[in-house]
Amino acid sequence: MHKVFAWFLGAALMCAMGTNLAMARDKEPFSANPTNAPIPSVFGFAKFMKPEVTKIDDGIYTFAHAGARNVFIVTGQGVIMTDPLNPTSAQIMREEIRKVTDQPVKYVIYSHGHWDHAAGGVIFKNEGAKFISQEKCVAYFKNFPNPDVPMPDITYKDHKTLKLGDKTLELMYLGPNHSDCLTFIRIKGTPYLVMVDMANPGSAPRGDLMDYSLHNWVRTLKEVESMVADGVTTIIEGHGPPSAPLSAVTERREYLEALMSAVKAEMEKGTPGDKIVETLTLPQFMHLKNMDKYFKKNVDRVISYYTIGY
Ligand SMILES: [Zn+2]
Fold first, then answer.
1. Per-residue pLDDT averaged across 111-132, rounded?
2. Does the chain have fewer CB atoms within 10 Å around its N or its C terminus?
3. From ligand 1's centre to the CA of 196, what distance in Å?
C-alpha cells in the first residue's frame, strides 16, 4: 500500500514538475544565453593576427582576418559590407575600410547566423549602418542571443535587390544548406558570387560538418554551378583565398558526392561504423588541404546522416 502511495505521489510530482516546465517554456522561449551573461571572448586570439585586404575589382574588396573573410564594396554613396566576423576583427576591419574610402558603411549583410561570421557589428551599427539578413536568421539570433550580434533591420525571404551608388547586389536564399538562412550575393554586372561556408576552395570541409543538411548542400552547390549561365565565373568565399574559380564549387560537390556514396556503400555491406571511419579512403581527393585533420570526422558525420537523418 505504501509503495503504491509513494509511486502515486512520485508520479503526481513528476506531472506537476512537467507542467511547470511546460509553462515556463511557454512563457520564455529557450535561450542559449538565458541570463544574458557576457559571451566569452573566444576571438581573443584574433588580436595577434595580421589583417589582409585584397582589391578584387573596381570598388570590390575583401578583408581577411583570423581565418575568416568578408567583402566590402565601395559604391560612391557609401559602403556595403558582408559579415563583421568577430568583435576583434571588426575593429581592425573598420580601420582598413577607412584606409580605402572615407564613405560610411551603409549596409551590413549577414551571410548567416553563425557567430564566427556574424559577430562584431556593433561599431557599424553605431555609425548608422542598416543590417540585412534572410528572414529565418531572426529566429536563430533570438535562440542564440549575443550582444555582439545586432539584430537585422531589414530581412527578405527569397530575393532582394540592393542598389547603392553604382553597384547593384542580388541577395538570394537557396533553401536550407549550411544553417537555414544563408545568403548568396551576386554582384551584378561582374563575374562574382559571394558565399560563405559552402566551398572553402582547395580544402576538405571542416570537421564534423556542423549545421549542414548534406543533400541540400549538394543540391545548392549544383544550383551555384548552374549560375555560370548568368555569367558567374568566380566565387569569393568566407574562408580560404581571396577568390577562386567556380570549379572550386564543383570540386566540393564532387567530394561530398564521393564521400556520401562511399560511406553508404560500406554501410550497405554491413561494415560497422567504427571500421568505416578507420579504413575508408578517397584517394582522388588526397590533394585537398586538411584531409588528414578532417576526413575521418567527415566520414563519421555522414554515418550519422544515414543512421538518424541528421
Ligand atoms: Zn557557418
1. 97
2. N
3. 7
Q: Is 234 exposed, middle or buried (0-12, 13-18, 19+ CB in 10 A)?
A: middle
Q: Which of 244, 250, 37, 78 is nearest to 163 (CA)?
A: 78
> Sign (positive/negative) of CA torsion 90, 94, 95, 100?
positive
Q: Which residues surround ligand 1, an ion (CB under 5 A)?
A: 114, 197
Q: Are residues 175 and 293 in the same domain?
A: no
Grid cell listed for 114: 553563425
156, 171, 197 — which closes off a domain? 197
What spacing in Å lies between the alpha carbon of 174 and ligand 1's midpoint? 15
Q: Could you say which of 157, 179, 197 is where a domain stops?
A: 197
HSE at residue 111, side-chain half, CA atoms within 13 A, is 31
User: Which structural domain range is residue 292 located in?
Assistant: 256-308
Encode pLDDT of 100-112 as tens digits.
999 999 999 999 9
Instruction: Report the separation in Å between the CA atom of 70 and the middle of ligand 1, taken as the mean of its atom positions.
Output: 13
The pLDDT of residue 32:
57
Interval 246-280: pLDDT, tens: 999 999 999 999 999 999 999 999 999 999 999 99
